[in-house]
């Protein structure tokens, strides 16, 4: 079976001038790819009738499916339906159902529809209307150049809802799509290039398609499997990949690292506290990003000044004087101190030099000591990180959380 | 003078399949727009020779300048130079200076260059080589279809350096570019739609171009001015806009909110401490993202559990019992408590319900009390926020920091 070709068209002056980062195209590309489409072209154009008409001719000529986002609002520079009518030699006429819907929406928030919104109900007369239950502007669908073209608003929430409830069912009805299965191996503590190297023999041996994605400090390996593959084969591939990835893989198709840690803590009815210096609260901010984290996260301190390390985490001032704030003994004392003060099962700590200033010959920028105090002893690692302040903080926070994950999974 | 047309081409399977969000194109589009170019087309293509060659012909035929990112790495699927040679009827030959540079780079980190990297020194013989002092792959420049085409690596750090040191000077030498001046008004506590409404009369009155950008929780108004505009006129426009924006504007072409706060604290030789509940460390993480923040940020606590609010910020347990943890008295006690314990000039606090669970009729999800303790008294605000957990945390953290900014600027 030949794979179907998909084209994406993003429209809007705010996108073409770089004022807005276009996340719609990447999101749609990922959806289409996982459905088995080849996304062969993404186009971005400004709010100009001629340009959009050109893009629509070009795109529809190169694909089986085209999805266009943006340009469906009520203002002068929203030109999509005008272009669709022009290109398909149709005309705009009032769509009463759409007008009723928009008026009802305004009524539901106690307002009268502004006259400008009538424009959103003027639609190409022969197009299929994709009702938008999540906003005012409906989507529009036409066939052009033997290509199914869908036009949806650029507001991500509305675009995603129209994809799910209008476009996806239509694509599934029209095309024989073998839904691919996707295994995402989520890894910490290993570089993308190292992952690629580790997985290369696996890829060759099984002739499978692997994708790699970096979301600092995490790296992911994505394994796409065809729908026809027997369940046992999937299981075998999954196990083999896990063998290769080893302790670095914290989950397959799982939640993120703090969710995995949260689930483990909840299961074990255990609790956590943090004492951060150079990570400045990043670890506690990540932990508390998980809904329900209040059931296992007791407290965090951001002990930036030396006095705060003593006052909040009980680090003896003499210890700081003897070894310096950025040292193994201080990291360990912080982790054990916060664990004791909070009465938690675990205590995490970080102390280091995030830069750009503050480095010395002995302790250059990027030197970070991290520790994890547990009921059975305290783990410590010294990191030597590189890069910007932001990068060093992100890597140090990730490594600290991952140290706890490895302990909880019995890997340390 | 007619404006010059610019085209962007992003290349790579990871981008076209949506695995990687392409921030390069938006960044370059903003640079080119501010230089006075019309960015008329952005193209994204996968790693296929025919597709890239097609895109290069198409793009160069529609623009005066084309910038292509990606496809310059050492692996099989890095095809850019091959395509450039093909399209310009050139051939690849070894560029000794580039090879020397790559070998020296490897030597500097104590490694021998892998044979695969020789590929990065095989370059179109007639192209101009853009030396890359920030990585291995050089950029390449050719003229094709009367269009200046630049090819640079997709690694953002290298791309930005090559833009600044190679492409920008070349564009300035080739084209008569009237450098536009850009005033960015950075605002907190006001919605984008409200900003647009406030600024509409200003825009009409002066016939200027305004841009709006939301970077939650901040909103920006961008005013582009032509190079020919007299300095006095710019000053007058700036003052008038500031009058309209009022207290919501925290800076013009300034650093971000925590940098502005940091500068104010440093100037005044004052210090800060934080006690966060629902924001979970986000405020301290933001404050400490500013280099040098250790000179004014003493400590933060993330007092998630009630016991932690008492232990770390001295909030009387009876107060929590009487009013609940999410209440005005507790927010005030947290701010004043952490200020006293840390011995800092200011104390910031948050306590609220970030959701999705935990809301009640009286205190629905999104109820957040924030406070700012100062030498002259304590400010308090009750927020009623909407949206996801992430959004509520972000808005609450922003509002708390902005409360301190307004106090420091004498606006409260």
Low-confidence stretches of chain A: none
Termini separation of chain A (Å)? 48 Å
Instruction: Report Rg of chain A.
Output: 27 Å
The share of residues in extended strands of chain A comes to 15-25%
Query: How many strands appear in the DSSP assignment of chain A?
Result: 17
CATH uppermost class of the largest domain in chain A: Alpha Beta
Question: What would the average pLDDT of chain A be, to the nearest integer?
Answer: 93
Strand order of the largest sheet of chain A: 2-1-3-8-7-6
Q: Output the CATH topology of the largest domain in chain A.
A: Molybdenum Cofactor Biosythetic Enzyme, Chain A
The biggest sheet of chain A amounts to: 6 strands, mixed
| Number of DSSP helical runs of chain A | 14
How is this structure best described in words?
The structure is a homodimer of 412-residue chains. Chain A is α/β, with parallel strands linked by helices and 412 residues long. The first copy, chain A, has three domains: 5-174, MoaB/Mog-like domain (Molybdenum Cofactor Biosythetic Enzyme, Chain A, 3-Layer(aba) Sandwich), CATH 3.40.980; 181-252, Alpha-Beta Plaits, CATH 3.30.70; 257-408, Maf protein (Alpha-Beta Complex), CATH 3.90.950. Chain A contains 14 helices and 17 strands. Chain A has helices spanning 13-16, 23-35, 49-62, 80-87, 96-108, 156-174, 192-206, 231-245, 257-268, 282-287, 306-313, 317-323, 328-342, 389-408, and strands at residues 5-11, 38-45, 65-69, 92-94, 122-124, 128-130, 139-144, 147-152, 181-188, 209-215, 218-225, 249-252, 272-276, 297-302, 346-352, 367-374, 377-384. In chain A, the strands form four sheets. Chain A has a six-stranded mixed β-sheet, sandwiched between helices. In chain A, β6 (128-130) and β7 (139-144) form a beta hairpin. In chain A, 45% of the residues are buried. At the A-B interface, α1, α2, β2, β10 and α10 of A face α1, α2, β2, β10 and α10 of B.
């Amino acid at each position: 079976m030949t794979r179907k070709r998909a084209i994406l068209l993003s429209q809007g002056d705010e996108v073409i001038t770089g004022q807005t980062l276009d996340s719609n195209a990447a999101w749609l590309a990922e959806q289409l790819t996982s459905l088995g489409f080849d996304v062969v072209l993404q186009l971005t154009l400004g709010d100009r009738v001629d340009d959009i008409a050109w893009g629509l001719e070009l795109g529809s000529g190169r694909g089986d499916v085209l999805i266009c986002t943006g340009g469906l609002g009520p203002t002068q520079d929203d030109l999509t339906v005008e272009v669709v009518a022009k290109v398909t030699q149709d005309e705009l006429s009032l769509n009463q159902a759409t007008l009723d819907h928009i008026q009802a929406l305004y009524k539901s928030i106690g307002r009268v529809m502004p006259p400008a919104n009538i424009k959103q109900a003027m639609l190409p007369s022969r197009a299929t209307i994709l009702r938008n239950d999540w906003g005012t502007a409906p989507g529009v669908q036409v066939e052009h150049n033997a290509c199914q073209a869908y036009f949806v608003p650029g507001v991500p929430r509305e675009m995603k809802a129209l994809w799910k409830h209008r476009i996806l069912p239509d694509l599934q009805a029209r095309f024989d799509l073998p839904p691919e299965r996707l295994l995402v191996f989520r890894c910490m503590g290993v570089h993308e290039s190292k992952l690629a190297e580790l997985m290369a023999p696996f890829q060759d041996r099984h002739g499978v398609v692997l994708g790699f994605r970096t979301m600092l400090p995490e790296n992911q390996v994505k394994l796409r499997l065809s729908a026809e593959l027997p369940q046992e084969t999937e299981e075998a591939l999954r196990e083999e990949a896990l063998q290769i990835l080893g302790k670095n893989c914290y989950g397959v198709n799982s939640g993120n690292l703090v969710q995995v840690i949260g689930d483990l803590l909840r299961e074990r009815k255990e609790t956590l506290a943090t004492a951060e210096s150079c990570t400045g609260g990043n670890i506690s901010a990540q932990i508390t990003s998980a809904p329900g984290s209040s059931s296992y996260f007791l407290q965090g301190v951001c002990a930036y000044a030396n006095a705060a390390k003593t006052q909040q985490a009980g680090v003896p001032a003499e210890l700081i004087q003897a070894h310096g704030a950025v040292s193994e003994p201080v990291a360990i004392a912080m982790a054990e101190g916060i664990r004791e003060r909070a009465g938690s099962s675990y205590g995490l700590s970080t102390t280091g030099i995030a830069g750009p200033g503050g480095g010395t010959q002995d302790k250059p920028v990027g030197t970070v000591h991290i520790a994890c105090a547990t009921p059975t002893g305290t783990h410590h690692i010294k990191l030597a990180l590189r890069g910007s302040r932001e990068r060093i903080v992100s890597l140090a926070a990730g490594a600290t959380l991952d140290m706890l994950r490895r302990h909880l999974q019995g890997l340390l």
